Amino acid sequence: MSFYNDLxxxxxxxxxxxxxxxxxxxxxxxxxxxxxxxxxxxxxxLLSGALAYVLAWEVFKNGGDPNVYVFGGADGTxxxxxxxxxxxxxxxxxxxxxxxxxxTVAFAAVIYSFSFVKKYTGQDKYYTLILLVxxxxxxxxxxGDVFNLFVWFEVSSVAICGLIAFRSNRGxxxxxxxxxxxxxxxxxxxxxxxxxxxxxxxxHLNIKYLSSAIGANGSMMVLDKIVLGILITVFSLKAGAVxxxxxxxxxYSEAPAPVTAMMVTASQAGLYAVFRTxxxxxxxxxxxxxxxxxxxxxxxxxxxxxxxxxMFVGVTLALVQKDIKRLMAYHAIxxxxxxxxxxxxGLAVFASGDNTDFAEFGRTAMTGGIFHIFNHxxxxxxxxxxxxxxxxxxxxxxxxxxxxxxxDMKMTALFFIIGALSIAGIPPTNGFASKFLIYxxxxxxxxxLGAVAMLVSLLTLASFVKVFYAAFMxxxxxxxxxGEVPKxxxxxxxxxxxxxxxxxxxxxxxxxxxxxPAVTSLAGPxxxxxxxxxxxxxxxxxxxxxLLAVLGVTLVIGYxxxxxxxxxxxxxxxxxxxxxxxxxxxxxxxxxxVPASNxxxxxxxxxxxxxxxxxxxxxxxxxxxxxxxxATAGLVMLALTFL
Amino acid sequence: MMSEIPYFAVVALIAIGLYIVMFKRNLIKxxxxxxxxxxxxxxxxxxLAYRHGDRLSSPIFTSQIMGGDAAAYSLPTxxxxxxxxxxxxxxxxxxxxAFFMKLYQKFQVSTIDDMRRLRG
Lengths: 643, 120
Known about the structure:
The complex is a heterodimer of chains A (about 650) and B (about 120). By secondary structure, chain A is an all-alpha fold. Chain A has helices spanning about 1-30, 35-60, 95-115, 125-140, 145-165, 170-200, 205-215, 220-240, 245-255, 255-280, 290-320, 325-350, 355-395, 410-425, 430-445, 445-470, 485-505, 505-525, 545-565, 600-605, 610-615, 620-640, and strands at about 65-70, 90, 535, 540, 585, 590.
């Protein structure tokens, strides 16, 4: 057991050391041959991922108590005065929860990559950068030091931008990469400035120390408020929240599909940093002063506003896209809004100091938001991988030019349906389980927000119906390749789809085992939501097994009714033709097809006044994007300082 | 007053850099703007290191050695931070310029007005 204990003690460092070491050795290993190199990259994600799971297991077992690792400390764990000047890793329930998300998606993405990048040159560098993204994501969530956080933030941006530009035969990938890099570099410099302000005030960089120092004299200084404003804006940019989202779709849509899946988790590390800032850095000793309570309360409302904006703008823009990956990228922004909304409501209620309200719905909202992070990583990762498979076979990313892929790609279509049902929050999927908690608790907080959250889910479903229709249904384009995608891509997708199925069937156990410790480590202990197979939100209950049983019985009844019918009936006349809502079935001898971009023509036309300015806002000019970021940062700082 | 001059320089550098990034259209100027903001942030960190008065934590250099004021000293941590951030800055600037170079090779792009294939 001693080896195991040592392993757990040093796990935070080893989890990051493995991908770093393997990353820089990959080009050397690649000299041997490509199979060894692929096995090498696979070993890296497998080892660090397994260790992340083991560490998370230990952390969750202790109810989310942190596993502290101090670099250069006497025995690695001792947290003394000197620890404040050392870099420390601080893996509590929330960090461990994020860690297993990173590990899962990276595992699927690397397996998927084996076939996906087969035809490209420069694969050694590809795997190097993939492992660096993984290391940076782990670093961002494990670190307990604000400057260290900045370093991982930058490592993540640089590695991701290198990967966005991986397909160097496309000029557009350089454009996407350049925009993403400019955006994240400027955000990173703002972050550095904020860290300078923190250091100048308190003389330390350790999050735990800073959390006890901020507001310790009973009041909040203006600089504290400005720092909070900068940190929230910068990390929301990394998470892709509206209105700092503009470069996100460019980067997501140009990166190779497995990289996009990893970018989702990397941006969730930004989301994690927002929550860490609000709950630990500023909310850790919230009872210090009334001013601090007010400030964190205001920050909660700010997250709610960012969340609602992201949800709505993201989904409405996704609806009109015709590039499949760009469409999904806007959905990623929209779903990030749910997490910001859920946790923002939790934060606002948490900071208001109303313990009954927090127990009644604040904690539920947080649980929903945090559970949604994992679900989002799973279904969004899966959907990006299916989008990659579609592009791999169709040779185009334009939805108008696709069609009929469902005939050959049955497995991909199945995985797509699983992902699409989950993102749209259709019961009995895991996406529904987390959204259910968000709807019910947010409705209690403010009915309008709950209604918006439901409307956005509806539009999400509409948009994925469009993608399914355009890509898998309809007549086949004769120029497209036939057949299913290679095995390794299917395995990569199956890993994520399998996780979705497990999470869908047992949402309550998942919440009880892994989400509750994460919530506890942010907001302190409270009532459990997942104690049995049924999940209780405080307002209602949800048990997917009951729903599945009802669905099964209904199916049996339907089948029995069908059996009672007359056998051997052949449709005649009009009954033979497919029903197309009065549209002709053929035009000039070709099957009649509504192009994907026209499916919601009426909707977009009715909302012309909304879409016109939106189109202007997403002008493609990086100047204007930076302006939006700076303006938002300024507004947030003003709001936090004067409200 | 003298000790506050660097802070004015920090504000000026960051403001000029932000102005360039927000309003100038040439790609190379854009990169220069980013470098200016970065320089401002680095100068800010370095300036924070110079303190006067009671020592908060381990200083490695006091001006007493040079025959100056014993109470003025310099904190080591911000220097380490600045060094790290300079290295990161070099990496991001090099990567950005490489992207601009490739964009020029592909599409003869030299201003951001030509760099808007991805939009909407």
